[in-house]
Amino acid sequence: MPYPKLPNLHEKINRLYDYVSLRHEYGAKGLETPLLDLEKAVDDTLEKILAAPVDEILRAKEPDCLEAIKKLRPDGPRRIWKKFDADVYADRLAGAFLGRMAGCTLGAIVELWDVSEMEKYAAHYGLAFPPKNYWTHTPWPYHLRYGKSACSDYTLGGIKGVPVDDDITYTLLGLLIAEDCGLGFTREDAANAWVKYLPYACTGEDIALKNLKSGVSVKDSADIGNPFCQWIGADIRCDPFGYLAPGLPEKAAAMAYNESYVSHRRNGIYGSMFFAAAIAAAFATGDAIEAVRIGMTEIPAECSLYKDIEWALSVCPTVRDYKDGRAAVDERFAGMHPVHTNNNACLTIFGVSIGGGDTGRAISETVAMGMDNDCTGATAGSLAGAAAGMAGLSPHWYKDFDNTVFSYLNHNDEFTIDDVLRRFAALAEKNF
């Protein structure tokens, strides 16, 4: 549906501040009164917006309760693997985890860049675009991402372990939740783990974490002061649940539901459930697009995300490269925020489709499409890698990871890749 056309409030507010400063410099008095009037007018406008009734028919198609979600799903396999195949799992888990690390690392220093800006940046340094390897430079080499890793740590020659990112940190957090609380962990368990392990967060996660730390229950932590509850944050956290439930899409979706509920609602939750189920299915199918179709069977058939994924799959044959993919999404989702679940999900599907069995190409094309491209690159790498295993990922994407992953989790700021894979495998086998 078309978004309302909004006045350019950012520009007007910036101009207002500039004129306040100027009039103050000229000795004007009484500037506080009109500013307080404006603040009240903004508060009143927000109150009216929040009081506007939602479409109840659409609301019924997009429930937040897991049992209600299950009743609205289309038919699906629910369980594909009947027994745990340790050898197949180990290969595909490594492909998925390293694919995720590579996709995130590639996208991190160009996160949210315009496509044209990435093209010019690559051309300036004589690099292929879409990239065939990591960026060789960054405009801000000494800038610390998440207060931990310098931007130069994400570049070719600078990578010494997987550098810090929230997309990577949440993958590790999912493992810790399952280890601490078991594979049947609850929403409350997930919320308690957030408080225990997360020192800070961003957007919807930041609001939910602050709500939890102030005593708000997990039942309400996503609902208070959170306009980001349909953004991409929940689906960047879902991959570990696909890893923990290989060939078990329903189980993966249920775990993703319990964790995503902490901070998200409606299509924000469904994005997490969908990708967790798709990754779980990819372990069994060996085909990422077939896995996407299975992932769809774990979310409501009438929700907007389902319809958008259905559209993406229908146009995949015409999407030959990153330019086609981004153009198609720009046309369909005009006005949607570039960190939303739905538009980014479609870009991820396009990237995986273009990549075929080549995980490296999947992450490269996905990152080249822009928007929230460290998130989409990571998810594309995870999904493609779970389908293709290690054969789909060239060693140059992971050779400099040095068996090490860094995070900003409390008391868990460094992991070895071998140990993470072993721990996922030990838990995954318990599902069978």
User: Shape from CA axes?
Assistant: globular
Number of DSSP E strands: 4
Helix percentage: 55-70%
Going by helix content, strand content and strand pairing, the class is mainly alpha
Order of helices and strands, N to C? HHHHHHEEHHHHHHHHHHHHEEH
Distance between the termini: 43 Å
Helix count equals 19
Segments where pLDDT lies below 50 for 5+ residues? none
**Fraction of residues in β-strands:** under 5%
The largest sheet has its strands arranged as: 1-2
Average pLDDT level: 97
Sheet with the most strands, sense and barrel status: 2 strands, antiparallel
**Oligomer state of the chains in this structure:** single chain
What Rg do the Cα atoms give?
A: 22 Å
Note down, in words, how this protein is organized.
The protein has 432 residues and is mainly alpha-helical. It has helices spanning 9-25, 32-51, 56-61, 66-71, 86-108, 115-124, 166-181, 187-197, 203-213, 239-244, 249-260, 267-285, 288-296, 304-315, 322-332, 341-355, 359-368, 373-388, 417-428; strands at residues 144-145, 149-150, 404-409, 412-416. A hairpin with a 2-residue loop joins β3 and β4 (412-416). It is globular, with a radius of gyration of 22 Å.
Summarize the structure.
By secondary structure, this protein is mainly α. It has 19 helices and 4 strands. It has helices at 9-25, 32-51, 56-61, 66-71, 86-108, 115-124, 166-181, 187-197, 203-213, 239-244, 249-260, 267-285, 288-296, 304-315, 322-332, 341-355, 359-368, 373-388, 417-428, and strands at residues 144-145, 149-150, 404-409, 412-416.
What's the SSE blueprint?
Layout: H1 9-25, H2 32-51, H3 56-61, H4 66-71, H5 86-108, H6 115-124, E1 144-145, E2 149-150, H7 166-181, H8 187-197, H9 203-213, H10 239-244, H11 249-260, H12 267-285, H13 288-296, H14 304-315, H15 322-332, H16 341-355, H17 359-368, H18 373-388, E3 404-409, E4 412-416, H19 417-428
Antiparallel strand pairs: 1-2, 3-4
Helix pairs in contact: 5-17, 5-18, 7-8, 7-19, 8-11, 11-12, 12-13, 12-18, 14-16, 15-16, 16-17, 16-18, 17-18
